[in-house]
Design goal:
Length: 148
């Protein structure tokens, strides 16, 4: 029984941390996220990629505002778009947050997230990918995580 409660307790703690309510006040507590993007993580595996195609994603969530920065290099062509998707490692999923399109590196911006999107980020069930004309489903991908 305790094993089944552990994931629920982890999600509850993450949701509380992301709710924006700091102890003793209404100040939002910033939470950081990162992702290292590469060809090997993309599902399905991209075609016609260049050696060294890679990227980095960094974001800070304060309350419901996600401020992000994305860099990438050595793609097979121009970046047509980049998104945050729902999906655990090795699984593809729907777009949750459009980041840019077309994109140039570096790219940055801000988005307002719903409670469900914040929960997905906290649980590790999201990834960032960058799409190109040769790889419209994505050329590089990185699972989003909270740094330790």
């Amino acid at each position: 029984m305790k094993k089944k409660l552990a994931p629920v307790a982890t999600l509850a703690a993450a949701a509380l941390a992301l709710s924006g309510a700091a102890v003793g006040g209404n100040q939002a507590k910033p939470t950081t996220f990162t992702a290292a993007l590469n060809v090997g993580q993309e599902i399905p595996h991209p075609k016609g990629t260049k050696a060294g195609a890679a990227g980095k994603f960094a974001a800070t969530l304060t309350g419901s505002t996600l401020k992000w920065r994305l860099t990438f290099t050595h793609l097979s062509g121009a970046a047509a778009a980049a998104h945050i998707h729902a999906g655990k490692k090795g699984k593809s999923g729907a777009v949750l947050v459009p980041l840019c399109g077309p994109c140039s590196s570096p790219a940055s911006g801000a988005a307002t997230l719903t409670a469900a999107q914040r929960s997905a980020l906290a649980s590790g069930a999201t990834y960032v990918n960058v799409h190109t004309a040769k790889n419209p489903n994505g050329e590089i991908r990185g699972q989003i995580r909270m740094p330790m």
